[in-house]
Amino acid sequence: MSSPPESEIAALRGLIRSIPDFPRPGIVFRDVTPLFADPAGLRSAVDLLAERLAGEGPVDYVCGAEARGLILGPALALRLGAGFIPARREGKLPAATERAAYELEYGAAELHVHADAIRPGARVVVHDDLIATGGTAAALGELVGRLGGDVVAYGFLIELADLHGRDRLAAPSHALIDF
To answer: Is residue 23 reached through a cis peptide bond, with omega within 30 degrees of 0 on the bond before it?
Structure first.
């Protein structure tokens, strides 16, 4: 599998807005909503990420983390020929759930997945729009494992490479854009 032309990645990077000091001083928030609003950018992001993840073999499910992992996740699942499993905040899923608690770079959180969402032995890609310290992805990967799934890869639109979040992940990870 070849890497996409740097011009495609640069075009996607150009659609991401950087907002300093949000949600608190010292944090630079990478706002992907302009990329999501651009039809060509959105298509390119999904296609390029799917191409990278396809190299990990067949996938049964993409498990996307709330909030923005719920936007690209279903499109990515379609491209990979997989189902989609939402990982939501507490109280957002109607049936029995399992939870994963984790630390963010600026707080703590937890995600929930329906307890019966993943069949034993299923091959799962964990997806989120951004990896920073890796806490969200690692916790979600552990949760997938507790539910009987096998995380075959992690997929991200953006990686904050200086924070070394990939080091916390137990499967290959793929990110399109690094900051």
So the answer is: yes
Task: Provide the CB-side half-sphere exposure for 68 (13 A, CA).
Answer: 16
* Whole-model pTM over 0.90: yes
Q: Where are the beta strands (DSSP E) in 17-106?
A: 17-20, 28-31, 61-65, 83-87, 97-104
Closest CA to 65 of 81, 50, 84: 84
- For strand 17-20 and strand 28-31, is the pairing parallel, antiparallel, or unpaired? antiparallel
The continuous run of DSSP H or E covering 19 comes out as strand 17-20
Q: pLDDT, tens digit, for every residue of 97-151?
A: 999 998 776 678 899 999 999 999 999 999 999 999 999 999 999 999 999 999 9
Alpha carbon distance 63, 128 (integer Å): 9
Query: Looking at the annotation, which residues are catalytic?
Result: 68, 105
Which tokens hold the place of 176? 């399109």
